Amino acid sequence: MMERVLIIGTGLIGASTGLALRAAGFGGRIDGWDQSLLELRAALEMGAVDGVAGNQWGALELARQADVIVLAVPVLAIKDWMQQLAAATGPGQLITDVGSTKLEITELACSLFGSENQAAFLAGHPMAGKESGGALLAEASLFQGAMWLFTPASQTPTEMEKEWRSWVGFFGTRTLDMDPKRHDEMCAWVSHLPQMLSTALAALLEEKFGDAPEIAAIGGRALRETTRLGASPYSMWRDVAMTNTAPIAETLLALEQRLGHVRENLRTPELRDEFALANQFRVRR
Known about the structure:
Preph/Arog_dehydrog; globular; 2 domains; 3-stranded mixed sheet; single chain; 12 helices; prephenate dehydrogenase (NAD+) activity; Rossmann fold; 6-stranded parallel sheet; PDH_N; alpha/beta; oxidoreductase
């Protein structure tokens, strides 16, 4: 039975996970660690965690006592923690993550975990968040209605994995298991490309117009929605770009070519066809 949880990384997703556990009725202990003392203190004060580790060594000691360890840090840090936790955990424990890319994490998990004398590892990715991060923005309802993706390294789930999946369901999520390579390819199109597009557009507008008052006057809702993701900090996306480079580059090239097609057909019926195709995509969803 899951009685102790350790959340490594108490920012938006980590703190929201703690709050969601409490809202779903989890009565066990939740500990936390974060490199930022401000994030850690905020998570503690809002009740997302019951106790905190003062340093990384303390977090490893708490990991030895935890039933489930949730890695809610950037992807490269997740891989680093996986290396450390492989030697600090054992049978009956579950390590899971919430990273935005899954292929490198799942491949590393296959080499570090899964034998009968090791902890189990379940790679996960909640498709939820906000354009800005931090524990102060955390909320128990963040995952309600969202899809929580899993890319399991093993076809035989442990009892602790089954229990964790149940709790995730209690958060109000839907769940889907995917092949990790397919996950990264799909997320490059539906998540990473929109972020890069919004970032590039917002940067272009800033470079072109700066603080010109006309932007606020005529930009309107369409501009705000299109550039909303441009508020996301680089720290949230650096590791995504570094661990899913080829799929993201493929989507950007495809978009460049599509924009070129639109540019070349601004005065032809091809533009009408492009709008019709786009409208069909929106109607389907």
